[in-house]
From TrEMBL:
<dbReference type="Pfam" id="PF00009">
    <property type="entry name" value="GTP_EFTU"/>
</dbReference>
<dbReference type="InterPro" id="IPR011779">
    <property type="entry name" value="SO4_adenylTrfase_lsu"/>
</dbReference>
<dbReference type="InterPro" id="IPR009000">
    <property type="entry name" value="Transl_B-barrel_sf"/>
</dbReference>
<dbReference type="GO" id="GO:0005524">
    <property type="term" value="F:ATP binding"/>
</dbReference>
<keyword id="KW-0808">Transferase</keyword>
<dbReference type="InterPro" id="IPR004161">
    <property type="entry name" value="EFTu-like_2"/>
</dbReference>
<protein>
    <recommendedName>
        <fullName>Sulfate adenylyltransferase subunit 1</fullName>
        <ecNumber>2.7.7.4</ecNumber>
    </recommendedName>
</protein>
<keyword id="KW-0067">ATP-binding</keyword>
<dbReference type="InterPro" id="IPR005225">
    <property type="entry name" value="Small_GTP-bd"/>
</dbReference>
<dbReference type="GO" id="GO:0005525">
    <property type="term" value="F:GTP binding"/>
</dbReference>
<keyword id="KW-0548">Nucleotidyltransferase</keyword>
<feature type="domain" description="Tr-type G">
    <location>
        <begin position="24"/>
        <end position="241"/>
    </location>
</feature>
<keyword id="KW-0547">Nucleotide-binding</keyword>
<dbReference type="InterPro" id="IPR027417">
    <property type="entry name" value="P-loop_NTPase"/>
</dbReference>
<dbReference type="GO" id="GO:0000103">
    <property type="term" value="P:sulfate assimilation"/>
</dbReference>
<dbReference type="Pfam" id="PF03144">
    <property type="entry name" value="GTP_EFTU_D2"/>
</dbReference>
<comment type="subunit">
    <text>Heterodimer composed of CysD, the smaller subunit, and CysNC.</text>
</comment>
Length: 476
């Protein structure tokens, strides 16, 4: 058994421990940085110093450190994290790995993403569910392109708390000036990111544990908290609960004529029995009758909870619809302005039909224009006809039907979408809605079927000499 748990159970008893554990808040964070900045070592150090490692695991690490480690006499804690054999042999982290640990105050899930440039898409995958980004910088190297790139993606994906961990301070003699100059350079760059991001910076040595779990004597000039304390104190729960209520319906549950429930997970906000709500896109109103869960009915429920709602009136709601507060003015549109991160080797094709999945709803759409691509090394923009692998651009997307549109920055689940290749069924891109372009609303399924629109696009692409008209434009 692991020693922190053992100690706590001995102090307060198993029942009290489980109860306390159940009520701790859960913080998801992402670690990112360039290759060899020390992510794995840092995560290993967090687990080790917060006593999350089993004795036998620790013994194995001491033995392995002698064989494959890169740390001389010290245990190579990266081995704890870089658990995969292939990865050990290559010495790199190859996919997003999730780890779990807890302290007396909080539970944590870490999304560990690889530092290599071509893995930007993995980072996007890891970041989309995180509350905090821990951005590692090697104190010897300072702010790199990769640092700027990851910070930009994290901000685009809606992360509002950054902890910039300036690592390997032992290799620069724990020099305050080095820390200050990296800090200033980073903060100057960060001015160009979303203004609502809270940024904390901490000097670290992941290898020796300085300022990771407890404050180090090596940095008397540093007046902030240790990394773990910063993570324990991030104030993120409130943000989730203050946002508007969004409930994408995943499944309509009708076991008999007396019960009709709408099952799903609350994407944001909270709902109470008696609340007046409306279903989108129909706009039909009703009142919440019951909030049903496996453990019985609830008087209210919050973001992240899986529930079934029943309503006082029989209104027509199907899978893919969204239930919101009755007085909430959510725009309905089939024309979106969105930041798109392209994740496929084959570039984005303007005009081509893709499957688009928004909050559990699958529809069809295409990118009708790319306003610009962003050079994520310096955040400058430039014009382009297409987006390559890892490219990020501001695009106009046209869907075959109108949907309830949320800005991603307000609601990650209902404002984010994924783009799927219709032939291979592979996810090729991720989009973050900025706004609905209501005035330019064009296509409606009533006029042309998805197949007709796609066929038209294919004809125009492969047989341009036929001079076929673009039917989606005809409709506008
Ligand atoms: N001196 C010193 N070395 C460190 C520190 N943190 C990490 N290292 C060393 O830096 C090297 C890379 O560390 P890793 O933890 O494997 O780096 P990573 O960022 O996870 O790298 P990838 O898994 O390849 O993405 C290893 O040799 C570590 O021992 C530190 O604070 N000080």
């Amino acid at each position: 058994m692991n020693s922190l748990i053992e100690q706590q159970v001995a102090e307060i008893g198993i029942e009290a421990y489980l109860d306390q554990h159940h009520h701790k808040s859960l913080l998801r964070f992402l670690t990112c940085g360039s290759v060899d900045d020390g992510k794995s070592t840092l995560i290993g150090r967090l687990l080790h110093d917060s006593h999350q490692i089993y004795e036998d695991q620790l013994a194995a690490i001491y033995t392995d450190s002698q064989k494959v480690g890169t740390t001389g006499d010290k245990p190579d804690l990266a081995l704890l994290v870089d658990g995969l054999q292939a990865e050990r042999e290559q010495g790199i982290t190859i996919d997003v790995a999730y780890r779990y640990f807890s302290t007396k105050k909080r539970k944590f899930i870490i999304a560990d993403t690889p530092g290599h440039e071509q893995y930007t898409r993995n980072m996007a995958t890891g970041a989309s569910t995180c509350d905090v980004a821990v951005i590692l910088i090697d104190a010897r190297k300072g702010v790199l392109d990769q640092t700027r790139r990851h910070s930009y993606i994290a901000s685009l994906l809606g992360i509002r708390h950054f902890i910039v961990a300036i690592n390997k301070m032992d290799l620069v003699g724990f020099d305050e000036e080095r820390f200050t100059s990296i800090r200033d350079e980073y903060l100057e760059f960060a001015e160009k990111l979303n203004k609502n991001i809270e940024i904390k910076l901490v000097p670290l040595s992941a290898l020796d544990g300085d300022n990771v779990v407890s404050l180090s004597e090596q940095t008397p000039w540093y007046k902030g908290d240790s990394l773990l304390t910063l993570l324990e104190d991030v104030d993120f729960v409130q943000e989730q609960e203050s946002s508007d209520f969004r409930f994408p319906v995943q499944y309509v549950n009708r076991p008999n004529l007396d019960f009709r429930g709408f099952a799903g997970t609350i994407a944001s906000g909270l709902v109470k029995v008696g609340d007046k709500v409306k279903a989108l896109p129909s706009g039909k109103m009703s009142t919440i009758d019951r909030i049903v869960t496996f453990d019985g009915d609830l008087p209210e429920a919050y973001s992240g909870q899986a529930i079934t709602l029943t309503l006082k009136d029989e209104i027509d709601i199907s899978r893919g619809d969204t239930i919101v507060a009755a007085d909430d003015d959510v725009p309905l549109s089939n024309n979106l302005l969105a930041d798109i991160v392209w994740m496929a080797e084959a570039p984005l094709e303007v005009g081509r039909q893709y499957d688009i999945k928004v909050a559990g709803k699958k529809t069809v759409g295409s990118v009708q224009g790319i306003r610009h691509q962003v050079d994520i090394n310096n955040l400058e923009t430039f014009t382009t006809e297409t987006l390559p692998l890892n490219g990020i651009g501001l695009c106009e997307v046209v869907l075959n039907e109108a949907i309830a549109v949320d800005a991603y920055q307000n609601s990650i689940d209902t404002g984010g979408f994924i783009i799927i290749d219709r032939l291979t069924n592979v996810t090729v891109g991720a989009g973050m809605v900025r706004e609905a372009l209501i005035d330019k609303t064009v296509v409606s399924t009533g006029d042309f079927s998805a197949f007709e629109i796609e066929f038209n696009a294919l004809v125009r692409k492969h047989f341009p000499h036929w001079n076929a008209d673009d039917i989606s434009k005809l409709l506008g």
